[in-house]
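Batch job 17 of 40 flagged for manual review because the log was empty.
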Amino acid sequence: MNVLDENIPMDQRDLLRAWGIHCRLIGRDLSQLSADDDNIVVLLHRLKQPTLLTRDEDFFRRKLCHSGYCLVFLDARPAESAEFIRRVLRHPQFRTKAQRMGTVARAHHDGIHFWRRNEASLHRAPWPGER
């Protein structure tokens, strides 16, 4: 399940839906508006293998790695949110839920930086076609 934080603009959610990418929204489909970060993590524990897509840098923390979910911080302009979400979900290393679980990632113009559960080092995955 792809979960959009409330900081993702609605026009970007509509673009994702037009592309066939299904997402649930915090504050509309899940939880309440203005849920704080701790409540969002609690919510993720209740859902089945969610991927949280957010513009909140506070979620890019290694200590948040958990086998039951994936966190993706979109380090881009709000108007680029949908494009970055699509790029992450299509990336060869993040294409399936099984590949994403236990990961905390930062998606940006240079690629994806990420931690995996039980691994100490920060990894880098370039966008396909880039080195």
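Reviewer: the log was empty due to a logging misconfiguration, but the result itself is present. The chain has a mean pLDDT of 91. Unflagging and moving on to job 18.
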